[in-house]
Design brief:
Pfam families: MerR_1. About 60% of the residues lie in helices and about 5% in strands. The protein is mainly α. The mean pLDDT is about 90.
């Protein structure tokens, strides 16, 4: 499929897809006319990249991680090394801290909502 179709199917801009290619996150074949051609697996790859960006990982870390993941189901392969595992553990701890902070913020909002919902006497 061409870049426009991949962009439509994933909801990711063509510009972002070109950036992913520049960063080594994905590859495309070239037609004789120079157009990018992607295989069907590119849809899963783009979705996986988007999930990793949403988790707060940078493109360099994503590039290290992607070879350790299967695109079809997102499950792990057996190619991770010790340094990557260590780096990802740090990322996971960062995400855990973010989750804890968000939960605290939600508790405060719940308290404010509850207090504001009590009818005035």
């Amino acid at each position: 499929m061409r870049i426009g179709e991949l962009a439509r199917r994933t909801g990711v801009s063509e510009r972002s897809l070109r950036y992913y290619e520049q960063q080594g996150l994905m590859t495309a074949e070239r037609t004789p006319g120079g157009h990018r051609e992607y295989g069907e697996g590119a849809v899963d790859r783009v979705i996986r990249i988007q999930e990793l960006y949403a988790a707060g990982l940078c493109s360099e870390k994503i590039a290290q991680l992607l070879p350790c993941m299967r695109d079809s189901d997102g499950g792990p392969s057996r190619t991770a090394n010790g340094q990557l595992v260590s780096d990802l553990t740090v990322e996971r701890e960062r995400i855990d801290r973010m989750i804890a902070d968000l939960l605290r913020s939600r508790e405060v909002l719940d308290e404010v909502i509850e207090a504001a919902s009590v009818p005035a006497e």
